[in-house]
Specification:
The chain is mainly α and about 80 residues long. The protein contains four helices and no strands.
């Protein structure tokens, strides 16, 4: 399931979701990870040392990537609409 979809499932509002993303980007840890399986697979990401305005821009971009059809068996998926 795409990351943006996980945030939309966990948080009721864009503000809550974006606040969590910004806090996580500043100080990633296993306990606040939205996708613990990704940490198991890839490891914990390093903290981003960007200005708050840039972190909020990243958070907004992640939040806005939400597509309710992705990750539910109805998304574009491999091959659908893609060149092979």
């Amino acid at each position: 399931m795409p990351l943006a979809n996980r945030y939309h499932l966990k948080f009721q509002t864009k503000k809550e979701g974006m606040n969590h993303i910004v806090a996580y980007l500043k100080s990633p840890n296993k306990n606040s990870a939205i996708d613990p399986q990704a940490i198991t697979r890839f490891g914990l990401m390093p903290a981003l040392t960007l200005p708050d305005a840039e972190l909020r821009a990243v958070a907004e971009w992640v939040w806005d990537q939400y597509n309710p059809n992705m990750g539910m068996g109805q998304g574009m998926g491999r091959g659908a609409g893609m060149n092979r």
